[in-house]
Amino acid sequence: MASVNAPAGTLIREWRQRRHLSQLELASRADVSTRHLSYIETGRSRPTSAMVMRLCDFLEVPLREQNQVLLAAGHAPAHPELQLSDPPMAEANAALETILRGHLPYPALVVDRHWELVAANDAAYAFLDGIDADLLEPPINVVRLSVHPRGLGGRLANLQEWRAHLAERLRHEYDASGDPELGALLAEVSEGGVEPVTSSALVVPMDLRMPDGNVLSFISTTTVFGTPREVTLSELAIEAFYPADEATRAYLQSRPLA
């Protein structure tokens, strides 16, 4: 992606190319002339804020990057960016806490756009006992923690399969966003090569060895806010883990969390 100081037209062109669209295809979808779109991309015409938003909508540009294009075009950002601790975010915080608490006794956590840990329930934190302290220094990167040999990676019975699964997710997210930090994380996870998943299972599990010798198997789901118009909320994801077999379910339901 272009630097944050790139002209608006350059940013729009790079997003169009990332979405594998020609000028004609984007112009047709956005109901603008190909000539006008060409003028915008080359800097011969400065797009209005409405035009920027229209093009970004058809290009599925994330909210943070939409603000970047608007600023580059000389317009005010359209989407606010708040901290979770800010008063307007109270209801969103309450929703996250309700989901995390309601998922017990199964682990669940909230991550941001770079897979850094935002919050987790007690079941998730319980699996961090004995993890190298350096890996638990904030900000905690969940992807790095899950594959590092001194993190959960040293306890995974199917580390290579899980690493391949994470690499696939990161590649998809990087292709969609162009975020350089995701690109760096993808390179880190893929270092040394990643073997493709060949299992016939419908869902890739995470098989975690416990200190008592049990191996717990989890499948995961991802939940996001449905219609966010604020940057921080648009970048949050809830990763909820469910038992992949009855033995794991029974183990977790019988295990005290405190």
Automatic annotation (TrEMBL):
Xref: SUPFAM superfamilies: lambda repressor-like DNA-binding domains
Ranges for domain HTH cro/C1-type: 12-66
Top-level taxonomic group: Bacteria
InterPro entries for this protein: Cro/C1-type_HTH, Lambda_DNA-bd_dom_sf, MLTR_LBD
Pfam families for this protein: HTH_3 (PF01381), MLTR_LBD (PF17765)
UniProt-recorded name of the protein: Transcriptional regulator
Source organism: Nocardioides aromaticivorans
